[in-house]
Amino acid sequence: LRNAHYLKDRLRDAGIGALLNELSSTVVFERPQDEEFVRRWQLACQGNIAHVVVMPNVTIEKLDAFLNELVQKRSSWFPNGKVQTPCIAADIGEENCACIMHND
Protein backbone atom coordinates (compact mmCIF):
# COMPACT_ATOMS: atom_id res chain seq x y z
CA LEU A 1 0.00 0.00 0.00
CA ARG A 2 3.00 2.29 0.45
CA ASN A 3 3.40 2.81 -3.31
CA ALA A 4 -0.31 3.55 -3.74
CA HIS A 5 -0.03 6.26 -1.07
CA TYR A 6 3.07 7.56 -2.85
CA LEU A 7 1.22 7.85 -6.17
CA LYS A 8 -1.80 9.56 -4.58
CA ASP A 9 0.46 12.06 -2.80
CA ARG A 10 2.52 12.78 -5.94
CA LEU A 11 -0.65 13.30 -8.01
CA ARG A 12 -1.98 15.76 -5.45
CA ASP A 13 1.39 17.53 -5.28
CA ALA A 14 1.11 17.98 -9.07
CA GLY A 15 -2.33 19.59 -8.70
CA ILE A 16 -4.25 16.52 -9.81
CA GLY A 17 -7.24 15.43 -7.76
CA ALA A 18 -6.73 11.91 -6.44
CA LEU A 19 -8.33 9.45 -4.05
CA LEU A 20 -6.99 6.32 -2.41
CA ASN A 21 -9.61 4.31 -0.59
CA GLU A 22 -8.67 3.10 2.86
CA LEU A 23 -6.97 -0.32 2.80
CA SER A 24 -6.91 -0.26 -1.01
CA SER A 25 -4.22 -0.06 -3.64
CA THR A 26 -6.56 1.57 -6.19
CA VAL A 27 -5.82 5.23 -6.93
CA VAL A 28 -8.57 7.25 -8.64
CA PHE A 29 -7.76 10.53 -10.43
CA GLU A 30 -8.89 12.82 -13.25
CA ARG A 31 -9.16 11.11 -16.61
CA PRO A 32 -6.32 11.98 -19.01
CA GLN A 33 -7.57 13.65 -22.20
CA ASP A 34 -5.19 11.71 -24.46
CA GLU A 35 -6.54 8.28 -25.39
CA GLU A 36 -3.10 7.16 -26.57
CA PHE A 37 -1.75 7.93 -23.09
CA VAL A 38 -4.67 6.01 -21.56
CA ARG A 39 -3.90 2.96 -23.74
CA ARG A 40 -0.13 3.18 -23.21
CA TRP A 41 -0.54 3.07 -19.45
CA GLN A 42 -3.56 0.72 -19.58
CA LEU A 43 -5.74 3.01 -17.47
CA ALA A 44 -9.27 2.02 -16.56
CA CYS A 45 -11.52 5.00 -17.27
CA GLN A 46 -15.15 5.83 -16.68
CA GLY A 47 -16.62 9.27 -17.22
CA ASN A 48 -14.25 11.95 -15.90
CA ILE A 49 -12.08 9.63 -13.83
CA ALA A 50 -9.43 6.99 -14.31
CA HIS A 51 -7.98 4.52 -11.87
CA VAL A 52 -4.95 2.35 -11.47
CA VAL A 53 -4.35 -0.57 -9.18
CA VAL A 54 -0.85 -0.24 -7.79
CA MET A 55 0.31 -3.84 -7.62
CA PRO A 56 3.20 -4.85 -5.34
CA ASN A 57 5.56 -5.27 -8.30
CA VAL A 58 5.10 -1.63 -9.43
CA THR A 59 8.21 0.33 -8.47
CA ILE A 60 8.58 3.94 -7.42
CA GLU A 61 10.58 4.47 -10.63
CA LYS A 62 7.63 3.24 -12.71
CA LEU A 63 5.23 5.48 -10.78
CA ASP A 64 7.57 8.45 -11.30
CA ALA A 65 7.77 7.72 -15.04
CA PHE A 66 3.96 7.59 -15.23
CA LEU A 67 3.51 10.77 -13.24
CA ASN A 68 6.20 12.71 -15.12
CA GLU A 69 4.65 11.79 -18.46
CA LEU A 70 1.16 12.62 -17.21
CA VAL A 71 2.23 16.06 -15.95
CA GLN A 72 4.12 16.80 -19.17
CA LYS A 73 1.25 15.75 -21.46
CA ARG A 74 -1.38 17.35 -19.25
CA SER A 75 -0.04 20.83 -19.91
CA SER A 76 -0.47 20.27 -23.66
CA TRP A 77 -4.18 19.40 -23.27
CA PHE A 78 -5.10 22.97 -22.36
CA PRO A 79 -4.91 26.21 -24.38
CA ASN A 80 -1.66 28.11 -23.88
CA GLY A 81 -0.50 25.36 -21.50
CA LYS A 82 -2.71 26.80 -18.74
CA VAL A 83 -3.98 23.74 -16.90
CA GLN A 84 -7.62 23.90 -15.85
CA THR A 85 -8.20 21.02 -13.50
CA PRO A 86 -11.64 19.49 -14.08
CA CYS A 87 -14.03 19.11 -11.18
CA ILE A 88 -14.30 15.47 -10.21
CA ALA A 89 -15.76 16.08 -6.74
CA ALA A 90 -18.91 14.11 -7.64
CA ASP A 91 -16.68 11.09 -8.31
CA ILE A 92 -14.03 11.31 -5.57
CA GLY A 93 -15.38 13.83 -3.04
CA GLU A 94 -14.74 17.54 -2.60
CA GLU A 95 -11.83 16.91 -0.22
CA ASN A 96 -9.96 15.02 -2.97
CA CYS A 97 -10.81 17.30 -5.90
CA ALA A 98 -8.14 19.74 -7.13
CA CYS A 99 -10.39 21.99 -9.22
CA ILE A 100 -10.44 25.74 -8.61
CA MET A 101 -13.74 25.50 -6.76
CA HIS A 102 -12.55 22.85 -4.26
CA ASN A 103 -8.83 23.56 -4.01
CA ASP A 104 -8.14 25.59 -0.87
Automatic annotation (TrEMBL):
The keyword Lyase applies. It comes from the Eukaryota. Coiled coil: none annotated. Keywords: Decarboxylase, Lyase. One of its GO terms (molecular function) is carboxy-lyase activity. The keyword Lyase applies. PANTHER family: PTHR46101, SERINE DECARBOXYLASE. Belongs to the group II decarboxylase family. This is Histidine decarboxylase. The gene is HDC_11.
